[in-house]
Design goal:
The complex is a heterodimer of chains A (about 500) and B (about 475).
Chain A: H1 7-18, E1 24-40, E2 43-61, E3 64-70, H2 75-93, E4 109-113, H3 125-137, E5 146-164, E6 169-187, E7 190-196, E8 203-205, H4 209-215, H5 217-233, E9 240-247, H6 249-260, H7 265-268, E10 298-301, E11 322-327, E12 330-331, E13 353-354, E14 363-364, E15 368-371, H8 378-383, E16 387-399, E17 405-417, E18 420-426, E19 429-433, H9 434-439, E20 441-444, E21 451-460, E22 465-473, E23 476-483
Parallel strand pairs in A: 4-6, 9-16, 15-22
Antiparallel strand pairs in A: 1-2, 1-5, 2-3, 5-6, 6-7, 6-8, 9-23, 10-11, 10-15, 11-12, 13-14, 16-17, 17-18, 17-19, 19-23, 20-23, 21-22
Helix pairs in contact in A: 1-2, 3-5
Chain B: H1 11-14, H2 18-34, E1 38-54, E2 57-75, E3 78-84, H3 90-103, H4 131-148, E4 153-169, E5 174-190, E6 197-205, H5 212-225, E7 229-230, E8 235-241, H6 243-255, H7 259-264, E9 284-286, E10 310-314, E11 317-318, H8 325-332, E12 355-357, H9 364-369, E13 373-377, E14 380-387, E15 392-397, E16 401-405, E17 408-413, E18 416-421, H10 422-425, E19 431-434, E20 439-440, E21 444-446, E22 449-459
Parallel strand pairs in B: 7-17, 8-13, 12-21
Antiparallel strand pairs in B: 1-2, 1-4, 2-3, 4-5, 5-6, 8-22, 9-10, 9-12, 10-11, 13-16, 14-15, 15-18, 16-17, 18-22, 19-22, 20-21
Helix pairs in contact in B: 4-5
The chains are: A alpha+beta (about 500), B alpha+beta (about 475).
The complex binds zinc ion.
Zinc ion binds near residues 257, 261 and 458 of chain A.
């Protein structure tokens, strides 16, 4: 079984691409191997594995891009792809009013991979399945209100070999592992779901199978069941316009994600206007706009160990970087690509262009969008809160196409009165306007309570590209938040 | 003479995938039988051309062709699946699925693959839209938009997709299905960076291309209109929803109507089959075999079960829940109660992907003329469930929100966020009229709707 592309084929494809009148050409071979397991109420309901592999050729012709790809890897097929890439590049070139120029990047010749202790795709399936079965049976309370207890495992590798006409030769293999549990409790039309360590298939990291073992689903599963049942009885999150809310990392990560899209330079320059939308953080506002107050510093960090958006090189061959996006409240940077960085006169791409697989052109994707920790201990933050709420674990999200008006729903909330947690609340929600919200932060917890979460399912582009990104934060307190928007 | 699903692929342009596909699926089925497994095998071809434009020029141009195989093995309640694009490593695919099966404990509900059912072959092909014609559509759109406003920034997508599948199983199923279709979308942006106007028009199409120029002009007019905005307070308003807004609500109605949610109690359909959920003016068909009416069409579902045109909401009453063979076995006790709505793959679930809403008699203009004081919503954006059981959603207006005063459009309004349930929005008595002019979208074909009230919860596109 060929698990890596033949160098002769790469050389042939690059040579073939260069035989056309191109300004730039790259050949990208990618292979995605994945494994997914689902157990419900002790029964295996999903055991699937998948392999996708192919080769794509991207050309810059007359200032326009063309791309073609196929999973048939033969010289004959490569001839066809190169010819089609040239044809579409020329068709694009006809429409160009502002030809594409690429930011310079040093030539890289390198072989890299995610550090792992155990390969998640070669672990015995029986072992993982038996952990999932145990987790989905843990805390089997025999309560008729429990409709489903799910336990899931996911893992994949993305192996890329990228050769460019500039001389870059990169061989990079990224490993991702994840897992989670959730319990669904239903009483009449009252529906509650509680998940650990995060909703939507759990949490993910660029790591090996050891990460799944560390999550320890069997130990955390009973808590999901207990809390799902407690939530059935809990009071609703009340509607208030001036609430004090402590948002924990498993929700704040999605706030960072949805706001993080606004830092994508293609959006800021209207390249995504037809689908994802644009950004309120327009180019002329860089170094001017107060995104938040002085407590808020946000990085795009592709180097954070184990972050789901961590890699060594992006899919344009640019080395991974840590980019400051917001510095003590002020907008100072973007996530960029080789095509977009020059639009602002910047000399180097931030290294944020990634593609779903061999069959897609890279787009600007978030890396790990992380909030710099503050100096509050989490316990002191709660003790310091007279009248407030704690929200955790995202279930619902929506934000406008400028990334201004957002609304989130969570699985669980807690009431805080006079510095003490006094009970649960169900179906918490909050809504706001991005810069107002980040300007209302008054306490950011310290490094000790910093947690990374992964979003494995971020969609962008046409044809659609699902990408995995990471988001780290410590619990953060916000004032004057509108909560309880979602009522029955 | 019946339609040949294979005739949809242009062999000269893409090469002939069929020798590899046929040898592959037959070899996989043979190997599975030899090893004593029940099996479902499929060979799939997907051809896709996507021309994206932005800042008034082509920014990305994908041209893709993919041949893939998928294999599901079953034995004594145990099941595993594997799929691959490594077309010359089918032994590897078999081994992967076999390893999966051997590690799987039996599932007490699983009855294996559905029994074969035949059905008539129908031509589901669309007009071929070439690379150059798609680039021409971009130039035509940009020129037409600039007639309305010379400084307009134009964006959009022109794309075409062709799919072919052959599905076989050890019960005797051996079926083929193919389909193709096209998509055009144009966005217009005008005005200075701090206060811009936005417009958009889009449609899926199969036989006759829309007028790219008309769409581009209309999008640009909306963008110009929305340069100047009135600020409205959140609250309940009488609304006319254009087809582009209705399609978003219908996507949630359709994807909220799955078998697992229905039986687990998390869906708006739970405990309500046969109930009058919506106003009697709402009738919804699922028409996967009607290529002139629905965009997402196929002759067989992902398990090789024939699709079927049917009514799922009749005069507001919910009549139908879709099942694949596993959910049919688990919840109804018989795998052959599968309805032809399976997604495919491993326990893929079932969905309604080809909805067509019965249209009424009024044009959008006539519906607007009947509103004293309300809002006209051209389109919604970023809609998400807030409460699946009640059909609760939140989302935003985008690309055209207008005030209606005394039956006339009375200026554009700053975008609003809504937090509203589609069950409440379409409930008996709240649907004043259904429009007559439908537009075709990815998963449904829908007209405009005039609703008595719709709940908006906050203001969008605003820094304050
Ligand atoms: Zn996203």
């Amino acid at each position: 079984m060929s698990s890596i592309i033949d160098e002769d084929i790469m050389a042939y494809a690059l040579e073939k691409g260069q035989s056309y009148a191109v300004q730039y050409v790259d050949v990208k071979w990618m292979s995605r191997d994945s494994r997914s397991l689902n157990v419900k109420n002790g029964d295996l309901e999903g055991n699937s594995q998948s392999k996708s592999q192919g080769i794509g050729i991207k050309m810059l012709v007359d200032g326009g891009y063309g791309f073609a790809a196929s999973n048939i890897i033969s010289r004959e097929s490569i001839d066809k792809i190169a010819n089609r890439a040239f044809k579409v590049a020329r068709a694009s070139g006809r429409t160009m009013k502002r030809p594409i120029t690429l930011a310079e990047e040093p030539v890289h010749v390198d072989r890299v991979q995610t550090p792992i202790r155990k390969d998640p795709l070669t672990q015995p399936l029986e072992e993982t399945i038996s952990i999932l079965v145990d987790a989905s049976k843990a805390a089997d309370l025999d309560d008729p209100r429990i409709k489903a207890r799910n336990a899931v495992f996911s893992a994949w590798t993305d192996h890329m070999v990228l050769w460019t006409s500039e001389g870059t030769r990169i061989d990079q293999k990224i490993y991702v592992t994840g897992g989670g549990v959730d319990t669904l409790a239903v009483q009449g039309s009252n529906v509650e779901r509680r998940s650990y360590p995060a909703s939507f298939r759990g949490n993910f990291a660029t790591a090996g199978y050891e990460y799944f073992e560390e999550i320890d689903l069997v130990s955390i599963a009973p808590k999901a069941t207990t809390e799902a049942l407690q939530l059935l009885e809990a009071p609703h999150c009340p509607p208030r316009n001036d609430a004090t809310v402590i948002i924990k990392p498993s929700q704040l990560m999605l706030q960072l994600h949805e706001n993080g899209h606004g830092f994508e330079m293609d959006r800021a320059y209207d390249y995504e206007a037809a689908f994802a939308g644009t950004s309120f953080m327009k180019p002329h506002l860089v170094d001017e706009l107060m995104f938040g107050n002085e407590l808020i510093t946000i990085y795009g960090d592709a180097t954070h160990p184990r972050g789901l958006g961590t890699f060594y090189y992006d899919h344009e061959g640019v080395q991974a970087q840590k980019t400051t996006l917001v510095d003590e409240g002020r907008l100072v940077g973007y996530l960029s690509s080789r095509e977009t960085a020059p639009l602002k006169g910047w000399e180097r791409s931030s290294g944020s262009a990634r593609s779903l697989n061999y069959a897609r052109m890279p787009l600007i994707r978030m890396t790990n969008i992380n909030l710099k920790p503050g100096d509050w201990s989490y316990d002191e933050m709660v003790e310091d809160t007279k009248d407030g709420y704690i929200f955790d674990t995202n279930v619902s999200w929506s934000i406008d196409d400028l990334r201004l008006s957002f609304q989130f729903g969570m699985e669980i909330g807690w009431r805080v009165e006079n510095g003490e947690i006094t009970g649960l609340i169900k179906k918490p929600s909050y809504t706001g306007i991005t810069p107002q919200f980040w300007n209302s932060a008054d306490a950011v917890a310290d490094e000790k309570s910093f947690q990374m979460y992964g979003t494995p399912n971020c969609g962008k582009g046409e044809p659609g590209q699902v990408m995995y990104t990471g988001h780290g934060a410590s619990p953060t307190r916000f004032r004057n938040v509108r909560i309880g928007v979602v009522q029955e | 003479m019946s339609w040949d699903p294979r005739s949809i692929i242009d062999l000269g342009e893409f090469g002939d995938p069929f020798p590899t596909l046929d040898t592959g699926v037959e070899k996989l089925l043979y190997m599975a039988r030899e090893k004593g497994y029940e099996a479902q095998v499929s060979g799939n071809v997907r051809l896709e051309g996507v021309t994206r434009f932005a800042v008034s020029q082509v920014t990305q141009h994908h041209d893709l062709s993919t041949l893939s195989f998928s294999l599901v093995l079953y034995k004594d309640g145990r099941r595993a699946s594997a799929n691959t694009t490594l077309v010359d490593d089918l032994v590897g695919l078999m081994k992967q699925a076999e390893d999966g099966l051997n590690s799987s404990p039996p599932n007490k509900f699983d009855q294996g693959f559905p029994s074969p059912r035949q059905s008539e072959l129908i031509d589901l092909s669309a007009k071929v839209w070439t690379t150059d014609e798609r680039a021409d559509s971009v130039i035509a759109s940009v020129n037409a938009a600039e007639e309305i406003n010379p400084d307009v920034i134009v964006a959009g997508t022109s794309s075409t997709v062709t799919t072919f599948s052959r599905i076989l199983n050890t019960e005797g199923t051996d079926v083929e299905s193919s389909s193709s279709g096209n998509y055009f979308k144009v966005n217009a942006i005008v005005g200075p960076p701090e206060s811009r106007g936005y417009g958009q028009e889009e449609t899926q199409w199969r036989y006759d291309a829309p007028s790219f120029e008309t769409f581009a002009r209309e999008a640009t007019r909306t963008a110009v209109d929305t340069l100047t905005l009135k600020n409205f307070k959140p609250g309940e308003y009488e609304v006319v929803l254009g087809p582009r807004a209705v399609t978003d609500l219908m996507n949630f109605v359709q994807f909220g109507t799955g078998p697992v949610g229905f039986h687990e109690g998390t869906s708006f359909t739970s405990d309500r089959l046969g109930d009058q959920i919506f106003d009697e003016k709402i009738s919804l068909h699922d028409l996967p075999r009607s290529p002139s009416k629905a965009f997402f069409t196929r002759l067989f579902d992902g398990e090789g079960v024939p699709t079927q045109d049917r009514v799922f909401v009749h005069k507001g009453s919910l009549e139908f829940i879709p099942y694949d063979s596993f959910t049919a076995a688990k919840y109804l006790g018989d795998k052959n109660e599968a309805t032809g709505n399976a997604g495919g793959g491993f326990f893929g679930g079932a969905f309604l992907g080809s909805a067509v809403m019965e249209s009424g008699v009024k044009s959008v203009r006539e519906q607007i003329a009947e509103v004293g004081d309300g809002l006209y919503v051209k389109s919604f954006w970023y809609n998400r469930f807030t409460d699946r059981r009640r059909g609760g959603l939140t989302g935003l207006t985008r690309n055209g929100l207008y005030h209606i005063k005394d039956g006339e459009l009375a200026g554009a309004v700053r975008n609003l966020r809504y937090t509203e349930s589609f069950v409440r929005a379409l409930e008996p008595g709240n649907v004043i009229s259904v429009g007559k002019d439908s537009r075709m979208f990815m998963f449904n074909t829908v007209p405009s709707l005039h609703l008595g009230r719709y709940r908006f919860s906050s203001v969008a596109h605003s820094m304050e």
